[in-house]
Write a structure and sequence with these properties.
about 325 residues; 7-stranded mixed beta sheet; 6-stranded mixed beta sheet; 15 strands; about 30% helix
């Protein structure tokens, strides 16, 4: 089945069935995952709650690939050295293409409605970023020469913004946090833009809470809200936050919350714990990821609550001991 068709057919009513089938396939064909599951003695789960989630650190130390198909592309996380960078080996880019486009358009509508203005200098510097690949695809789908990467020139950003409005399209700004703050401090206002921050100060600025960052950007750009995404190198899907810091997943992605002190026990709804992700777009690596993020489930989605202690800082921040 084609990736797009597969993702389209996943609903709340059949998610468990699809996830269990994915587990069986990956247990059989992803050697590192099978070894991990066997070590735990949990090879035959009967429910989603019983499926072992692979610690995300395995993507730094092992090749997580299903079967023996050739690798088309390897996405790398941000980091100061190769040693600290996760590697997500992709054997079929059609899965990412389908997930990123369907996931975006179910929230924002057709990509062709927008001019994409990308302010992602640190991701461009690191290279092999899954976020850059995603934005590249959206830029292509926008079908306009005005979409592109604008780095740190406020005048060029303003020109792209005005060209978008004059052509009847909506300006959509993808920006790493420190680049958006730089743009605000230049005095540029973007009241008619959709602005999505991707996190990350890269050690260049004092860290702000998400609420503080959004309030600063709202005031500076003169917009009513700032959007966010929850995504990572190890996943091929994204959750989007449109308001009130609540993230919502596409139908083929699910968040489950585990006890921070017992990774094999889920906590009651609404309680804070470690975030486990089921991403059914990850058909050819591992769909069951135990992250180092903290969060809680609430009606309509989930909240991010920080990081587990002793975890690497995700995104563009410098690694700390």
């Amino acid at each position: 089945m084609e990736p797009q068709q597969y993702l389209y057919q996943i609903t709340a009513s059949n998610f468990d069935e699809m996830a269990m089938a994915t587990y069986e396939r990956q247990y059989a064909q992803v050697p590192i995952y099978r070894q991990y599951v066997d070590m735990l003695g949990k090879a035959r789960p009967q429910t989603l709650e019983e499926i072992p989630f692979l610690p995300i650190a395995f993507f730094k130390s092992h090749q997580i690939v299903l079967g023996e198909n050739p690798i088309q592309q390897t996405f790398l996380s941000s980091g100061t050295t190769q040693q600290f960078r996760s590697q997500h080996h992709i054997t079929d880019l059609n899965w990412y293409n389908a997930s990123l486009l369907l996931g975006f358009e179910r929230v924002f509508g057709p990509a062709s409605d927008y001019v994409f203005i990308a302010l992602l200098p640190s991701y461009l510097e690191n290279g092999d970023s899954s976020l850059i690949y995603m934005v590249d695809q959206l830029i292509q789908k926008s079908g306009t020469e005005f979409s592109g990467y604008y780095l740190n020139d406020p005048k060029e950003v303003q020109t792209a913004y005005m060209r978008a409005l004059n052509s009847g399209k909506k300006p959509f700004v993808f920006g790493v946090a420190y680049a958006l703050i730089d743009l605000v401090e230049s005095g540029l206002e973007l009241p008619n833009a959709v602005i999505l921050e991707t996190g990350g100060m890269k050690g260049r600025r004092q860290e702000l809470t998400k609420i503080e960052l959004h309030q600063l950007l709202q005031r500076g750009f003169k917009v009513q809200r700032i959007l966010s995404e929850y995504g990572m190198t190890e996943l091929l899907s994204q959750a989007y936050c449109l308001k009130d810091q609540v993230f919502s997943c596409p139908p083929w992605m699910q968040i489950r919350i585990r006890d921070a002190y017992d990774p094999f026990q889920e906590v009651p709804f609404g309680q804070k714990g470690g975030i486990n992700v089921i991403d059914l777009a990850n058909q050819n690596s591992c769909a069951f990821i135990q992250t180092d993020d903290l969060g809680r489930l609430i009606p309509g989605g989930f909240l991010l609550e920080g990081r587990l202690e002793a975890s690497d800082i995700r995104g563009c921040n410098q690694l700390v001991d």
